[in-house]
Amino acid sequence: MKSDFQIILDNIQKRRSIYPHNFKQGAISQDIINDLVEAARWAPNHKMTEPWRFVIFTEDGLNKLSKFLGEYYRSNTSQEVFSQEKMQKAAEKPLQSGAVIAICITRSPEAVIPSWEETAAVACAVQNLWLTASAHQLGGYWSTPAAISELVRYFELKDITNCLGLFYLGWPTELPNIVRKRKAIEEISFYIK
Ligand SMILES: Cc1cc2nc3c(=O)[nH]c(=O)nc-3n(C[C@H](O)[C@H](O)[C@H](O)COP(=O)(O)O)c2cc1C
């Protein structure tokens, strides 16, 4: 029988960034999305501010997100470099996905808690979400295009300070066997005895 440590390490090591061009068509049920949010909301956070918010695009919402990304490219690209092909490329990922979760933050005042701590708490929540997606055999990755700076305003999201990324989700065409290296333990750990 595997120890708790081996189970958690296996799951952590199995998690990968899997990109929308490797997804096949297929919706993701609300039950599964709820599993991801359930895991996310148990992340550590200073002063229990629970700063994470998840804006979930499914069904026609994926077309709306795609339109937003295309429009952002159009309005932020000069005429000289504008290309129809690049606009389509900017807009295609939501259409290849089963769902997209905009990772958002509702910040407490800086005097209550520093901004970086709130961001760190959201990142912890995303790791929980990501590991849970991986345990469901779902592919996904955290994307941080420039367009996210406009997402809250564009979708008129109330009580949300900022968007920190788009988490694309989909069923991978095949289970990934991607090897991504990490630095050795000795390179990143330093003892003071
Ligand atoms: C905060 C954050 C932002 C990221 N933004 C992007 C991104 O914009 N585009 C991208 O291709 N990958 C992005 N990634 C995914 C990383 O490229 C990926 O995690 C890294 O290559 C390691 O691969 P792995 O997730 O499979 O271990 C982001 C990851 C994090 C944590």
Descriptive notes:
The chain is an alpha+beta fold. The protein has one domain (18-171): NADH Oxidase. 43% of the residues lie in helices and 16% in strands. The chain is built from seven helices and five strands; from the N terminus they run αβαβααβαβαβα. The protein has helices at 4-14, 30-40, 60-75, 84-96, 115-135, 148-154, 185-188, and strands at residues 23-24, 52-57, 99-105, 139-143, 162-172. Strands 1, 2, 3, 4 and 5 form a five-stranded antiparallel beta sheet that branches. The chain is globular and about 60 Å long. The two termini are 35 Å apart.
Summed up:
Helices cover 43% and strands 16% of the residues.
